[in-house]
Specification:
Two copies of one chain form a homodimer.
Chain A: E1 5-9, H1 13-22, E2 28-32, E3 45-47, H2 54-60, E4 64-67, H3 74-80, H4 90-96, H5 99-108, E5 116-119, H6 122-132, E6 136-140, E7 150-153, H7 159-166, E8 171-175, E9 181-189, E10 195-197, E11 201-206, E12 209-215, H8 222-239, E13 243-252, E14 255-262, H9 272-275, H10 280-289, E15 302-309, H11 315-320, E16 324-328, E17 338-346, H12 349-358, H13 360-364
Helix pairs in contact in A: 1-10
């Protein structure tokens, strides 16, 4: 049985790109979000939670529900799941929302992580600095992203300030990982349990925001490629996950170290729109609607994604590059806001590098 | 100056695919059509001509207007053009709507056509059979498509019945063309007069309906490729055309013979969605909105398009072929109705042929 109407909690660019991928497959989209002038707005009806009987109306208008964010209310998801299937399921969502549960899941599955300890008192923090060795990163176990809800303890003298900044929350102390670069792997699992993995991407961040992703990862050993695929497939099966999942990884001399997972399509996978036969958006829709999964193989040897952040920049320039693909989100300019991205697809690394050079302003200036 | 809001006269699959291509470029679409449950319906507002002040509302909500069909009311286009630009312009539209004007345009530009004569009396018809030589095809100069408004005169004994069937209309008599296959070329011209041409497609029709298009055309000489490109570029410039245009051609021993033109995106160009960097839909939107044209080069060596006609068929099978791309139009099943298409993109002719074989039911049974 194939679902035909997808309800999306949220109406941002991820919902927009799901709808653009799903519409040619005869899937209709309804969005559940307070914002109405949003990136998804022109691709389906938006039902505002604040209106009367909104949840009933939303659920009556869809066959299956998904969401855009790992910060989606898990209780709402549990409630919805009593009347309509929600993918990815509550289990994937709750484990993604709690750093300690997430790390324990990784550890239980043999997925390497940084050493970590639970911290709820200052004594436990001091003990963690000794057991894990300095420096450590102290994080709240829930919420917090892009550097918020975090403190770095480099020396004993940082302990007091870190504790003052974060006390009152359940915390996780993580040993510092000496990594050479940040990678991610994206995979998808359908209702029957079939899985497909996308090629790994190398991700460049600056000021806590993803700037550029590139595929393939230069000089990645076959062993590490297999390690990443094994990690994410194990994770998908263990969670009983349906839909797309993303695993962020650190590349180190002693192998890949899992950083965190996201139970959703991911910014580092936007290159798949033109880079593969079935993009992460299309495969997410296929999976949650009960359709067969599509090919996750790269259509050409090299790809890159450049985020458009803060300002739209020189669109004419982007449109004039033959192998550049512009994806705007119909969002207004605002500092540090992701308002679009540019995909570059080519048959050589050189072509990609040349295009990135031409588009340097998008990486350095647009923010 | 870049237009941001496109008004489309019509709301069928061509408008749908324009909107799917234009949305990532931050273009918004409004449709002007009586039908509201149409293929474009979920991709923008539909304004119904029968409602009060509909044309004013439509024009107030858009920056530029285009249309889906060569049967669009040219007087309406002329009227609209007084307040908003309409692309392609009235000149392209009117010449496409009148077979005699169209053929004279071809002849004036040195574009080879079948020999033809205007016929308004039975005496002129008899004269035409002698001057052109039998067989001839007798057609109404306006309207009529897919074999309607046509009669073939094979022998003198067919003259009476052909005349009875079509008399009262202005007619054109065309010499029969002995062609080996039907081809088409699609090109685009922007407001500044820059042009780009897509690779030629070979088109298989049956019962007057396009079934399969394939690219590249097997064994096409460089001379014929150049001839086609020269024809369509000459035509674009002569018409002052803005947007996409299609020229249907017969392949014969003595060169390419122009059959007819369409001032629009074309079914034989649907393969460009995944087959080129900028599809015919994207380039049409780019051209009419004043954006730079995108690349029309094939991304991989081989492509094909199979129309889904009458019945949806086995979608699971389509979705299971790694290099097949399903494009539905959200239309209900009806005999001989185009309700979707399948694009196949590959690195060899063999791969394409194998996929076509797997999908034979779509060519032979779905109708």
């Amino acid at each position: 049985m194939t679902a035909k109407r997808v309800g999306v909690i949220g109406s941002g660019q991820l919902g927009r790109m799901m709808a653009l991928a799903g519409t040619p497959l005869d899937i209709e989209f309804v969005f559940y979000d307070e914002a109405t002038e949003s990136p998804s707005a022109r691709l389906g009806e938006t039902i505002q939670p604040s209106t009367s009987n909104s949840l009933e109306s939303f659920l009556a208008s869809v066959d299956v529900v998904t969401y855009e964010s790992e910060n989606t209310d898990a209780d709402l998801v549990a409630r919805i799941n009593k009347s309509k299937p929600v993918y990815p399921g509550e289990n994937s969502l709750r484990r993604s929302q709690h750093r300690l549960v997430e790390k324990n899941t990784f550890r239980d599955l043999g997925i390497k992580t940084a050493n970590f300890l639970r911290v709820t008192t200052k004594d436990e923090l001091i003990k963690a600095t000794k057991e894990l060795g300095l420096p450590i990163v102290l994080k709240t176990t829930t919420m917090g992203y892009d550097g918020k809800g975090q403190a770095v303890v480099k020396t004993d003298s940082d302990i007091d300030s870190a504790w003052e900044a974060l006390k009152g929350n359940e915390l996780i102390a993580e040993a510092f990982v000496n990594f050479s670069r940040e990678l991610s792997i994206i995979a998808v699992r359908d209702i029957q349990g079939n899985t497909r993995t996308y090629p790994l991407a190398e991700n460049d961040h600056s000021d806590g925001i993803l700037r550029v992703s590139q595929v393939p990862v230069t000089g990645l050993s076959q062993a590490k490629q297999k390690e990443a695929e094994s990690y994410i497939t194990t994770l998908l099966d263990h969670l009983g996950h349906v839909g797309v999942i993303t695993l962020e990884l650190f590349d180190t001399d002693s192998g890949l170290i899992a950083n965190e997972m996201a139970p959703r399509v991911h910014n580092s996978g936007h290159w798949t729109i033109e880079g593969t036969a079935s993009s992460q958006f299309e495969n997410h829709v296929r999976a949650i609607c009960g359709m067969p999964l599509g090919s996750t193989q790269a259509r050409q040897s090299n790809a890159a994604m450049i985020n458009i952040i803060g300002k739209h920049g020189d669109r004419e320039k982007v449109l004039s590059i033959p192998n550049a693909f512009l994806h705007t989100y119909s969002k207004t300019e605002r500092k540090n806001r992701k308002i679009g991205h540019i995909n570059l697809i080519a048959d050589s690394k050189d072509e990609i590098e040349n295009a990135i050079t031409e588009l340097t302003e998008f990486i350095n200036e647009c923010g």
